[in-house]
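Sanity check

After download, print the first record. It should look like this:
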Amino acid sequence: MGQNLFIQNALSPPILFFFLGAIAYALKSDFEIPAPLPKLFSLYLLLAIGFRGGIELQKSGFGYPVLPTVIAAILMSLLIPLICFLVLRFKFDVFNAAAISAAYGSISAVTFITAESFLESQNIPFDGFMVAALALMESPAIIIGLLLVKFGAPKDRPIKRKMKWGAILHESMLNGSVYLLLGSLLIGFLTSAIDPSDIKKMEPFTAELFYGAECFFLLDMGIVAAQRLARLNKTGAFLIMFSIFMPIVNAVLGSVVARFLNLNPGNALLFVVLCASASYLAVPTAMRMTVPEARPSYYISTTLGLTFPFNIIIGIPVYMGLVNTMIPSIG
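Expected structure tokens:
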């Protein structure tokens, strides 16, 4: 890993479009994307990676390394929020510490997609079954975050704010992104198993359009991240430092697990990226519903304004170097 990886990653079309959006906001350009389009493109990206992941999952089956990797991914999404919570409790109350911890224990699908594009640009192979790990890492962190609130909140917490576990489980297991991702994964799996000829019919939509849609989506993400970045001064230096260093710590933990699982470099990078990324969609939705005491400016501004751009611009090449260092026998 060297300087070339940083340059190649920073000059790739998705990252350049991300900068284009961020610069538009910084220069106060009147450029804007109509609100329904980013949502449409995010749904498209989830559908496409889920469908392609299902095809690859059918090819690879459920033996090694699929099942151990998926189990390890779920365990990491349970462990990381607990580690984050121990750190954050030095500065924040239970509500904010739990909400931020849940965000950093969950994942960012767009960071995962960007890492896939990075691997393709470097001609490093990876397996589609990692999409299953992506889908299954989103919910456990939400549940852990809410359990931390349940057992750590003051006993006089207003009854109206006490959590209803049915609603919590429904939101964490069936939120829109998880539902679409798992559903597309299943459809891709069934299509590959029953009639592989249908895969060809889907390819113009799920494969050939994918890269352009990713660029368009990152253009919007650049605008949104720049907006959030401008509000970071309200979160304090501790949280700003946390939003940079905690992903690196999580990446190191992820690389140790990837080495233990003996994953190939491509799969190892995706596993590490899942551990290092943070949620800015599913977790905030769940936290706003069940933990209104937590301040959204904390867990949204940091994940979207700092951790997300750090990961896609600097983090992914750094994590690739980490993977090659930690897994020298296969790197």
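If your output differs, re-run the checksum step. Summary of this record's structure: DSSP finds 16 helices and no strands in the chain.
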